[in-house]
Amino acid sequence: MDKINKLPPTIPIFPLSNFIIFPNTTVPLNIFEPRYIQMIDDSMKSHRMIGMIQPKKSGEIKKPDLYEVGCIGKITSFNETDDGRYLVIINGISRFNINKEIETNKLYRICDVNYEKYNRDLDDKVEKFELKDLDKIFKDLKNLFEKKGFLVDWSNLKKENFSNTLNTLSMASPFSLEEKQVLLETKDLNTRKLMLEEILNTYIRDDFSNKTIQ
Predict the structure, then answer these.
(1) What is the pLDDT of residues 60-112, one digit of tens each?
(2) Is the dihedral of CA 53, 54, 58, 60 positive or negative?
(3) 2-122: which CATH topology?
(4) How far apart are CA 110 and CA 55, in angstroms?
């Protein structure tokens, strides 16, 4: 609980479609829009944290509706390019639920959030699994990636622990934003593994059906 209380209850929000992060994963971001330049500037002056969340396909073009669950991340690296872009690295900390959006005069969006539902994200205990438990997922994903023309360094990925590997696969897989959101909202690693397998089975069945249609 102490760790949760140290997280900011009000955070800047960065809506990014088909993009999720999990706690203890690291992702690079290329920031160039003025509203998000302002967001990074303000964040760097305070707690260096931003909330990554997916926008829905509803709402206004410049202000789409948001999913209720995202992940807060901390800026661990910051560089500015000659043309004014920001290259930052975000380290995921904890998932959150949006309570409400706060109206401000900022260019970016700000939300009041809570972390209670995902308090295990801050737990130091690691769920016990072995990478061999991911063998089927690796096989199915490799086929899916190859069909979509994606190249992945599977050898490096398999050097990670179970949690990091599973979360990286969930983040990088060519799924829909709805499917990625389902993976983000799963409460624990085992549920996420089962859901990832279920989504992959759907793609495999669809591919099989397409091949058998005459």
Answers:
(1) 988 999 999 999 999 999 999 999 999 999 999 999 999 999 999 999 999 99
(2) positive
(3) 2.30.130
(4) 14
